[in-house]
Amino acid sequence: MTEITLNTASCTSLIHCGQGAFSECASNISGQKFIITDTNVYKIYSRLLNEYFAQSPVFVIKAGEKSKNLFNLTKILSAMADAELKRDSTVIAFGGGVVGDIAGLAASLYMRGVRLVQIPTTLLSQVDSSVGGKTAVDFKNIKNLVGSFYQPHEVIVDTGFLKTLPVRQIRCGLGEIIKYAALDKNIYNAISDNDLFNLEFLASVIPDCIKHKVDVVSSDERDLNGARKTLNLGHTTGHALELFYKRKSHGECVLAGMYYELYIAQKLGIGEKKYFNSLRRLIEKVIRVPKYADVEKAAAFAKMDKKNAGANITLIVPEREGECAEININFDEYVRLLKEAK
Ligand code: GLY
Question: Tens digits of per-residue pLDDT, 204-218?
Fold first, then answer.
């Protein structure tokens, strides 16, 4: 098992990563516990939860991004109060990114913060969302508009959970892994010539992705100095597509967003063409890049994104192996290039 520590001003997070991490670490979580999961995960793992956390209440939200809302947050807080959780109780987020985000926010609010353990069960949440302390719900059709920074005390990344994931979920996580590849030369080299859908291979790159994120977060926990922004590579257009095409997954949209943004960067003369083409090939190994018919309509959501103020859109684009740049582009120009790319 790989042990990784994330030190920030607010907390030290211990991240345990490997096959069997759950059975090794779950029984060490002491005190009163409150589990939050979703309908898909509960269907598969209710017995496991019962085996390890028999006496603890389990709050199950409906699977899917739509559940990340204030209404469910209130219901969770109400159930936490009914269970009489105390300051030293532990909220356990057992599931994917949606569960982790809303459970993290509930843990940060209840009594101004109770202990939080993230147990990510999807590839995406294992490599990205369970680490780094971003918590949120969506609000007014804007992703993650209401949230907090709240570091989990522990993250238990059991790669054994990947076995029960549908291939669409693997694709979704690969969106983030390819993002890391665009930011980190070693990850790029590791994934370039490998079978991206092989679970053993994926399990071997997860710790590297987490380590990359830990380095970034420890230098910019609150997303203030630009380092953490790089983790949003592909996400500006990706989030816009996700909000517009409601049924597409986050990972697919991030990959498509990255694809479009690579086109834009190339048109603006940024970065190396050969490198862009190899990143595009990686993306095409995972998704058939859709030619979104309404990409310009979707782009309107990029303008509403909390990261984009005024007439400009900010994009993080890869330049060459392991290096990226932040560019500001006028919104009309952005839409024009998106149309051209489709
Ligand atoms: N997923 C981007 C971040 O955690 O900053």
Answer: 999 999 999 999 999
